[in-house]
Amino acid sequence: MNITIYSKSGCPYCEKIKKIANYLKENKNYSIIVYELGLDFTREDFYEKFEVGSTFPQVIFNEQHLGGCTDAVNYFLNNKLL
């Protein structure tokens, strides 16, 4: 299982979803990729991928775009992954 997170520094929701992803990595052996704004992509790249107005973080789970932190947490809970 793969979790990809598009994140930016100083974002509390980004930190929350990274902690959850690390929990899944440690307890269920999921792989995690974290991309950081300014290091791995530009804001323009971000808007091209997720559309203008998208917020941070954006989470992709096994090729499926889950959305932001709340949507990702709800997905993990509803699918009994947490």
Within CATH, the superfamily carries the name Glutaredoxin
Largest sheet: 4 strands, mixed
Overall number of structural domains: 1
- CATH fold assignment: Glutaredoxin
Radius of gyration: 12 Å
Low-confidence stretches: none
Give the integer mean of the pLDDT values.
96
Total helical elements: 3
The CATH architecture classification is: 3-Layer(aba) Sandwich
Shape: globular
- N to C succession of SSEs: EHEHEEH
- Side by side, the strands of the main sheet go 2-1-3-4
Descriptive labels:
82 residues, single chain, globular, 4 strands, four-stranded mixed sheet, Glutaredoxin, alpha+beta, 3 helices
Outline of this structure?
This protein is α+β, with helices and mostly antiparallel strands and 82 residues long.
